[in-house]
Specification:
The protein is α+β, with helices and mostly antiparallel strands. The protein folds into two domains: 10-163; 188-426, paralog of FGE (formylglycine-generating enzyme) (Alpha-Beta Complex), CATH 3.90.1580. The chain is built from nine helices and twelve strands.
């Protein structure tokens, strides 16, 4: 991490403290509907217990901000450095990710005490100052890191609850009994041949994998005006989409055959009708809503079946900037944002931001000139640039202020437990 000279003004320090308190509070609000038993659950190696998310986000601030930058700081518990390290191997050997759900100790009360202790120390650091620009950058990174874990907290508990035969709801989210009507007709938006600016740099926060900003030559292409709906995806299922090998990439077809997949994650058929498990429990499929929890192989197979393709991440970003100005994304409190599920595109919505993460055909690779920081925090993104696919756009459970056009999310092609969907493109 490069050390920047100078000091941050007291006004900036206080704004940062206000932001810190709000983000940390939002994480705990998301945990409020859960019991201590709920927060211990880990349903698969890709997911983590809520309790671990609460502790790890505190570990991040303790490790990267407090340990070396607050004079006289003493770690809350030396054992936590091992238990709640995620993947920072340069800092020591992390505790086994698939076994996080086995950590019954520390108990939940101790984890919350850990959060309180870290919060007090960060508040001391911000109130007493002086704060250097590199310290401000690390705290800002920590807050964006915590917002990522807010999203993971929800996707992980949803997966855990889906395994319970009683299909419990995270929140009492009652589906509207009224038929919402059809989604807007799908239109094709023409994007002209040009050189487009891609990536981010400047005053606003961005992760290192969004830089350096650079230019990409794109040939003219077209992109769908909205996401693929449940009803449209159901046509793919009923047309034998999961039984036709010619639609699938080889790895995807192997996955479908080995696991007996015949519908999206969380879908199930009861008495001839399709339902899906949601954060509000089991609810009937709404045809007009975007199809959700699709993995890359499913997205690619659907696009092939429909006679189109997935956009590249560069096409997606160029189209998003042309068709939607960044300031159109209204800031919203996470708990007030929508209904923890994607809604139908109606009234001209193009769904580029804040509906579902959208699979692209692009491999997750570094931009030209990318260099990860040589410090431990450099392990954040760069070392994962292999064998994964890029998703764009944010989802209905992504904190609204956390979404931006240049944001690059990335997952392995088989993973569908995130709120991910499909936007078609064509030449």
């Amino acid at each position: 991490m490069t050390i920047l000279a100078g000091e941050v003004s007291s006004d900036i320090q206080q704004r940062l403290l206000t932001h810190y308190k709000r983000v940390r509070g939002e994480t705990e609000q998301l945990a409020d509907p859960l019991t201590a038993e709920d927060m211990q659950l880990q349903s698969m190696p890709d997911a983590s217990p809520t309790k671990w998310h609460l502790a790890h986000t505190s570990w991040f601030f303790e490790t990267f901000v407090l340990a070396d930058r607050l004079p006289g700081y003493r770690r809350f518990d030396p054992d936590f450095h091992h238990l709640f390290n995620s993947y920072y191997n340069s800092l020591g050997t992390p505790f086994s990710r698939p076994q996080r759900g086995l950590l019954s100790r520390p108990d939940l009360d101790t984890v919350f005490a850990y959060r309180r202790a870290v919060d007090r120390s960060i508040e001391q650091l911000l109130n007493e100052g002086p704060l250097t620009p590199d310290m401000e950058a690390l705290i800002t990174l920590g807050l964006n890191h915590e917002q990522q874990h807010q999203e993971l907290l929800l996707t992980d508990i949803k997966h855990a609850f889906s395994i319970n035969p009683t299909l419990p709801a995270y929140l009492d989210i009652t589906a509207d009994d009224e038929d919402p009507g059809d989604a807007d007709p799908l239109r094709w938006l023409e994007i002209p041949d040009a050189i487009y600016g891609i990536g981010s740099e400047g005053e606003h926060f961005f992760f290192d994998n969004e830089s350096p900003a650079h230019q990409q030559l794109l040939h003219d292409f077209r992109i769908a005006s909205r996401l693929v709906t449940n009803g449209e995806y159901l046509e793919f299922i009923e047309d034998g989409g999961y039984r036709e090998p010619r639609l699938w990439l080889a790895d995807g077809w192997t996955l479908v055959q080995q696991q007996g997949i015949d519908c999206p994650l969380y879908w199930q058929k009861r008495e001839g009708s399709w339902y899906q498990f949601t954060l509000g429990g089991l609810q009937r499929i709404v045809d007009a809503e975007p199809v959700c929890h699709i993995n890359f192989y499913e997205a690619d197979a659907y696009a092939t079946w429909a006679g189109f393709r997935l956009p590249t991440e560069f096409e997606w970003e160029a189209a998003a900037y042309i068709l939607r100005k960044p300031d159109q994304l209204a800031a919203a409190n996470l708990l007030e944002k929508r209904a923890f599920r994607p809604l139908a595109a109606q009234g001209g919505q193009n769904q580029f931001l804040g509906d579902l993460w959208e699979w692209t055909s692009s491999a997750y690779l570094p931009y030209p000139g990318f260099r990860a920081s040589p410090a431990a925090v450099g392990e954040y993104n760069g070392k994962f640039m292999c064998n994964q696919k890029v998703l764009r756009g944010g989802s209905c459970i992504t904190p609204a202020e956390h979404i931006r056009m240049s944001y690059r999310n990335f997952f392995y092609p088989h993973q569908g437990w995130q709120f991910s969907g499909i936007r078609l493109a064509g030449d």
